[in-house]
């Protein structure tokens, strides 16, 4: 069949989103807020489930903090609190089904190897790094997620 004929015969197929995953970086609110706004808007319009993931990275702590197991517990507690705040904000916006996801490791590896296979999203939304911070932020890892994700990824700026 000729390419022109293929286009003429083509009909747009509606895409139904059931699960959307948004990656939140508590160290870079500016990149996260754009991704969060986008994901909430898409999920609200499609009545999908919103997964909100944040990754606690152990390499972000300094040598002195690493000597105290309480430091990692503090980071987990802070990340959990921030994650629940995002859940509250999504629900206030009108998103009905929200699942918080807290994990640890390198952001793109944790998201690609653990979160995506477990949550099974139809779409992943990430922000783009807006400022340089220590460690591997989700914004700085967006390229790896885009390149290796088995599902569609949108970068919100």
TrEMBL record:
It comes from the Bacteria. Gene3D superfamilies: HUPs (3.40.50.620). InterPro entries: Rossmann-like_a/b/a_fold (IPR014729), Universal_stress_UspA (IPR006015), UspA (IPR006016). It holds the Pfam family Usp. Belongs to the universal stress protein A family. PANTHER family: STRESS RESPONSE PROTEIN NHAX, UNIVERSAL STRESS PROTEIN UP12. This is Universal stress protein.
